[in-house]
Amino acid sequence: MLSWLGGAGLLAVGAARAARAADPAQDHALAVVEPPRPAPAFSLQDINGKTHRLADYRGKVVLVNFWATWCPPCRQEMPSIERLYLAMKGRPFEVLALDQGETLNNVFAYMGQLNPSPTFPVLLDQHSEAAHAFGVMGIPTTYLVDKNGMIVRQAVGGRDYDSPAIRQVIEALMR
């Protein structure tokens, strides 16, 4: 019975996401986190072996995206995250994409298939420890962390991250 309810819940979430995806106004929504809460610390390696700590980005607005290669909405939003990242290059902004539970080989192979391949850091959260610390319930889930390390916005489900509405939110946070 419990597994049936879990499956029904997943179907309901999927239907709600599909309905939201059909409404373009929702694609730009980043929910306000009120009150803002401290972003959990993490230290993870990227696909090139470099270690990234969230604390190293204090003073910048950071888009923290939890995703996986097998997740269709994650794959769909990746190009918009890259466009946003390139548009904000040289500004106090960073993107950290945390892959959930996959091997380096799987993630590296997927990155090689993308054209263009993302230039932002892609980190490996192989045991989903950072995801658990953030309270991620499904992917994609994205958080905006302000310059003081506080989570101020969040989104569950795919988004168009280089939309004017989302850029405006990020611009305001960088001031």
From TrEMBL:
**What does UniProt give as the signal peptide span?**
1-21
The GO molecular function terms of this record are: antioxidant activity; disulfide oxidoreductase activity; isomerase activity
Pfam families hit by this protein: AhpC-TSA
Species the sequence originates in: Thiomonas bhubaneswarensis
Q: Which PROSITE patterns match?
A: THIOREDOXIN_1, THIOREDOXIN_2
The family database entries (PANTHER family) matched by this protein are listed as: PROTEIN DIPZ, THIOL:DISULFIDE INTERCHANGE PROTEIN DSBE
Protein name per its UniProtKB record: Thiol-disulfide isomerase or thioredoxin
CDD domains, A to Z: TlpA_like_family (cd02966)
